[in-house]
Amino acid sequence: MELYMPRTVIISGASKGIGKETARVFAAAGDQVVVFDVDREKGEGFCREEKAAGRKVDFSAVDITNTENVRSAVEKAANQYGGVDVLVNCAGILDLHSFSETTEEVWDRVMGINLKGAFLLSQAVLPFMSKNKSGRIINIASSAGRTGGVKTGVSYSVSKAGIIGLTKTLARMAAPDKVTVNCIAPGTTNTDMARQFSSEDTEAILRQVPLHSLVEPEDIARAVYFLASDSAKMITGICLDINGGIYMG
Ligand SMILES: NC(=O)c1ccc[n+]([C@@H]2O[C@H](COP(=O)([O-])OP(=O)(O)OC[C@H]3O[C@@H](n4cnc5c(N)ncnc54)[C@H](O)[C@@H]3O)[C@@H](O)[C@H]2O)c1
Fold first, then answer.
1. Residue limits of the Ketoreductase domain (predicted)?
2. What are the tens digits of pLDDT across the range 64-93?
C-alpha cells in the first residue's frame, strides 16, 4: 500500500460554507489545513471541533484584501508547517445590487474580496511552491462568471469571470515550476451565501437547472480535492463547471 504524504493546505474563507467542507475533506485525508478567514469565532469553533476529532486544522485571522496581513500569515504558515502545498482561494461575498444601484464602493469591495484577495494570496504562496517545484492552486469561481449570472449583481459576475482569467494566466506562468492552477465554477450551492436569494429567486434559478437541485458544498469539496491530487497532475488552466447543467461549457 502506498503511504499518504500529508500536505499543508491553506484554504481562504473556510470558517463556513464551501471552504469549511473543503477543509473537512483535506483534514479527513490526513492533511494539515490552515483556515484563513476574517470570521474568527466561527473559524476557531470549527478548528476546535476538527482537533477534537483528531484532525489537523488551525485558524489564522486573515483579511485577504490586506497585503501585509496575507503575506505575514502565509509566511508564518509556511515556516510552521514546512511550506505550502495547496492553496484554495475560496473566500468570497455575494452582490445582489442592480446594475444602476451598483456604487463604486460596492464594486471595489466585491472586487477586493473576490478577485484581489485571490491574486494577493496566490502571489504570496507561489514562491514557496516554486521553490519546491510542486504545488496546486484551486480558485473558486462561479457559474455567474460563465453565464453573466441569473440573479447576481454585475460586480459579482465580473469578479468571477476575473477569477477564470486569473486562473488561466497563472496556470501558464506557474507551469515551469510544476505548479498547476485550476478553478471550479459552482452553480447555486446550499450555503449561507445562496440563502441571501429570495425563495422566488431560488425557484427561478432552479427552473433553469436541468438537474433541478442545488449543488451541495461536498460536491465542490470533493472536486477541489481531486484537482489537488496526483490524478490531476496534467490538468492546469481549466474551469470545472459543477452546476447541475445550468451552464455546459
Ligand atoms: N454558495 C453559492 O451559491 C456559490 C456559488 C458559486 C460560487 N460560490 C463561491 O464559493 C465561495 C464560497 O462561498 P460560500 O457559499 O461558501 O460562502 P459563505 O458566505 O458561506 O462563506 C464565505 C467565507 O468567506 C469569508 N470571507 C469573506 N470575506 C473575507 C475576507 N475579506 N477575508 C477572508 N475571508 C473572508 C467569510 O467569513 C466566510 O467564512 C465564494 O467565493 C463564492 O463566491 C458560491
1. 7-167
2. 999 999 999 999 999 999 999 999 999 999
